[in-house]
Amino acid sequence: MKPLKLTLEAFGPYAGRQELDFADLKDQSFFLIHGPTGAGKTSLLDGISYALYGETSGGLRETRDLRSHFAAADIPTQVVFDFALGDRRYRVERSPEQQVPRQRGEGTKKQPYAANLWELQGEAEVPLATEKPTAVDAKVADLLGFKASQFRQVVLLPQGRFQEFMLAGSAERQAILQTLFQTIRYARISEALADEERVLKEALRTAHAETRQLLAQAGVAAAQDLPGLLQATATRLEALGLEQVEASGLLERADTALNEGSRAAERLAEREAARAEITRLQGLSRIMDARRTELERARRCEAVTPAAVRLEESLARIQELEQEEARLAALADERAQDLARAEAVLTDAEQHEVRREELRRTIQRLRDLEPKLEALEQARQEAREAALERSRLEDLAGWQKRRVETSKQELSQQRLLLQETRTEASQLAGREGLLVLVRQRRSQREDLDRAIEAVDRAATALEAAQETLLATQQAVQAARERHRGLQEQRLAAQAARLARDLHPGQPCPVCGSEAHPHPALPSADLPDDQEMRQSQEQQEDAETAQARAQDAAASRRAALDTARARRQDLAERLGEHVGISLEDLSIFETRHREDLDRSRSAEAGLARAEQRLAEAEAARNLSEAQLSETNQRLSDLMVQEAGAKARMQLLEDALLQELRVPGALSTRRREAEEALAESEARLKAARAAREPAQAAAMQAQAELKAHGGRLEAARTDSWNANGAFEDALAAAHFHGRTDFDLARRSAGEMESLAASLETHAAETAAARDRSARAEALAEGLEAPDLPALQTARDSAQARFSATGEALGRAQSEQAALQRLETALTRLEAKREAEERRHRAAASLARVARGEEGDRVSFERFVQGAILDEVLISASERLRRMSKQRYALRRATVSTDLRKAGGLQLEITDSHTGRARAVSSLSGGEGFQASLALALGLSDVVQRHAGGIRLDTVFIDEGFGSLDSEALDLALRTLEDLNQGGRLVGLISHLEEVKARIPARLEVTPGPGGSHARFRIE
Predict the structure, then answer these.
(1) Which of 884, 892, 887 is nearest to 921 (CA)?
(2) Which SS3 state, helix, strand or coil, does residue 212 take?
(3) 3-state SS track over 67-122
(4) Half-sphere exposure (CA, 13 Å, Cβ side) for 720?
């Protein structure tokens, strides 16, 4: 991972937008992050770590502490980090949960925690994970190959966590190695081998059970009995085959007789059905005659229908015309009434001509008075405006007097507040140190409480495992005793079998004696082979359960030892503070954080307080100047108001009393003009409305007269149509309109009548033909006894089916026996192969668990090898920094890697020739060893990280514990890192370090927040 660009906004001590482009380093790959204490150097590493993982570089600062106290409320906290992996570039962005101003209205709203990750392809941003921080966390870990804790061990070496790996207890170091190098997979390999052994053993047990089940299905005691059973089944199949051939011939003869009888019965039944059909059709003859007469009358109606249709149409036309005549008459009356109303309105409008002339003279007289009234209104307006402005200035002068007094009080308060702020800000550094210390103790206390709980859980689990182990041991003992008893019974039975063949004077085949004083007697409870096999399997099952319980108990015991070691290590870290509860530490932390927040706020607001003091002094001076100006303007305005009132008095004397009121003249003139306009409009509208009303009345009368002629013509046409209809009825021999309507049918009804007559004729002919054929086929036949024939056939079928079922069962039995024989052969081969696999898997599982050889588990062996590799790489750097004096190695006190002690570290001293604990190093020596170990750990993690290249390392640690020579050696060691192409960044405030490194990222604090920039000398 190589950083490209970091952008911080309202983050830590950076109030505004802080952009750092690492391209400004040009060809420099070794640079210093320099600035005074508290300026914000570590905050830059916090920004990188927070952007990638959502955590700070040291893991101590909480996300709520990342918000800048210098930032304005409308600037949200945000971090953007661009980085490269090989030739590919990425951008990650995060913003914590925070309160931001509402876009509409006042107040704030909560903005949720958000994160986004893109791949940069040219100028385009291709989304990889958006919105959800957990998805971004997983994707970043996948790209970099590290989680946050691993990243702090190999890329960011944070302040306060630098010596964590070196001084960690063995159990904690084991957990770190397991996390960094994923050695848990080697423990899982051991578990997988043990699982494989158990699965194979279970498979063998299953194979034995399947064999017993197959033999039980075949009904034999052993596989050797199957051939005889197959031979007996074949003989039975041959006999059943001959019996089925005989039953088949009998069934064929019965089928033939039944078929012939069924055909004769069908022919006789057909003859009876044909005779019945003819009888039915003859019964329909009268109905057909009536339908024929009905069809003939309907056909005579066709000649009369045109005249009837013409008559109906003429009557309908007359009805329509009569309705239209009534409508036109009503419309003519309505138009006449409209004309009368329009003439009355016109007459009324023409009678107001005298009133209109009076209005015209009044309007002209009012226009002559308008100039004087306008002058009066202007004077009144000036007087009102002067009075209003005078009142406003009097109020303003009073307010300005009060503001002068307020500004004086504010000035006094700001002076007092500035003094308090300076006092509070001076305590910032001490309170920061106290808060970090309390947080460390609280974190250690939480770890200790969790370790105590883990010890309790492990002890409980171990107790349960030991109880289970005791129960399995008792079960194994019982199974062994039962199996041993059965073996003794079997041996006694075998002795009795030999005793049956003993005779006096003949030697015993066992001992050779010819005397047999007490021969063994046969036993009634002789165990058979199946009982012996079951006893053996029960013993094996009990032993398997015991082995599992032993493994579980050993695992629980190791877990308990690890938990106790971690608990002891954490208790030693807390030291004299081990008795303080977590609640008390949380209270202390809250109190110190509140104190620190006050100091930070005071430091951040110091410049602002000084500014407010200056603003208060300026506000007081401005208020006094504004008050003087307002008093001068008030004096001028009073003179202007007196002059306006004098002009207003003169103009009011020159006007009539009723017109002095503002707006009275214009109102009277406007009323006269509106009255004149309204009267003239009514006259014009009345003249315009009369003409269309008169035209509409005349048109309505003309339409009514024309419609009367059309109605008379329609009545004449209807009389003629009625005469033609009467003539047509007489010609068609109908007695009247009623007789015609009864005979009249629609075209569909006439077609239906004709079709029914034709169908009846065709059905009659077909029935006669069918009857003739049926009589011919049934001639000479007698009714057969079908039930007797069916009974004979059913009997033959039952015999044939019974023999077929018996033959099928015998064939199925033979096939099943053949399948069982094949399955037994295949199962035996499979069981032998699984026995070989089980033996191999059991051996591998015991080796992986550390039960054979050196008795070292697979995971512990790998962890020891990795730790040795880390220590070799670390010792190369430590020897250089210590002038070949010190080296790191794994402690040789205990070589048993099954225990946590196998991962203890010690330092070898070439001056004394002996090794000692790493905790005995001085401060500077401890820093050198920790730095060497961290760099060695980084090298090994990189080698084991699947080809991931680490192009960058940041080191945030106190170089102040080193003397000048040791500092020189440490810097030379770090300079060697960038020779391999790495970008190395150091954080320090020491001037000696600054003098050695030309490329620097300088952090400068200020009253409004810190600023950072790259600089190369």
Answers:
(1) 887
(2) helix
(3) ECCCCCCCCCCEEEEEEEECCEEEEEEEECCEEEECCCCCCEEEECCEEEEEEEEC
(4) 5
In this prediction, residue 351 carries a pLDDT of 66
CA distances from 323 to 223, 704, 711 (A): 114, 12, 10
CA 925/CA 916 separation, integer angstroms: 13
Rounded to whole angstroms, the Cα distance separating 17 from 355 reads 84
Count of alpha carbons within 13 angstroms of residue 444, beta-carbon side: 22
What was the pLDDT predicted at 897?
43
With a pLDDT cut of 70, the percent of the chain lying above it is 83
pLDDT in tens, 9-39: 988 888 888 999 998 888 887 888 888 887 8
**114-121 and 124-131 strand pairing:** antiparallel
- pLDDT tens, position by position, 551-606: 778 778 877 877 887 788 777 777 777 777 777 777 877 877 777 777 777 777 77
689 burial (CB, 10 Å; 0-12 / 13-18 / 19+) is middle
Residue ranges of E strands in 861-920: 886-890, 905-909, 914-917
AA identity, residue 418: L
In the numeric block, which tokens belong to residue 840? Answer: 């191999």
Condensed to tens digits (0 to 9), the pLDDT of residues 405-464 reads: 777 777 777 777 777 777 777 666 666 667 777 777 777 788 888 888 888 888 898 889
Q: Tell me the three-class secondary structure of 734-755, residue by residue.
A: CCCHHHHHHHCCCHHHHHHHHH
Residues 6+ apart with CB under 8 A from 975: 30, 984
The angle, 0 to 180 degrees and rounded to 10, between the axes of the packed helices 226-283 and 747-777 is 120
Q: Which positions ≥6 away from 1017 have C-beta within 8 Å?
A: 998, 1000
In this prediction, residues 865-874 reach a mean pLDDT of 86
Angle at 407 (CA atoms; ends 402, 410), nearest 5 degrees:
125
Look at strands 886-890 and 983-988 and give their pairing. Answer: unpaired
Q: Distance (Å, rounded) from C-alpha 596 to C-alpha 601? A: 8
Q: pTM for the complete prediction?
A: 0.40
Q: Are 924 and 962 in contact (CB under 8 A)?
A: yes
